[in-house]
Give the backbone structure.
Amino acid sequence: MTTPRVEADLGWALGRVARAHLRTAQDVVSGLPGGPRGYQVLAGLAAGPPRSQLALARTLGVDRTVMTYLLDELEGAGLVERRPDPADRRARQVLLTEVGSGRLCGLERDLRAAEDELLAPLEPAERDQLRALLQRLAVGGDAVSACQVAAEIQEMQADGSC
């Protein structure tokens, strides 16, 4: 029985790509208050209606006290604003400012370029497939197992679509 090479291990590959992505993303968002977490807050706010600090913290998996400090920094930079929730005066809504929206747009463009450089060994269609599969796995982790995603990738490779 032969031992598979480490390069064939999903965990090794995911870890290596994740570390490379983290280094790249940190370079892009280094000037943003909160760095990568600050970016996630801006992106989370752009995705829909105003949200409470608590809901945002839960969605992003950030401790609520850490979220308070992070929002203080982002608000100080003029990227977000907090206001009382009209439906519940005890809660505060967090909104993306116009300055924050513009900054997010630039960061998204720069991150996409950095990701494309990281994923350069893949064809553009493969990059899109990888992003879609990883997003499905991340968002619906309970509904889709890593094994299912790996099997789908193998099927795509076998039929030549990947």
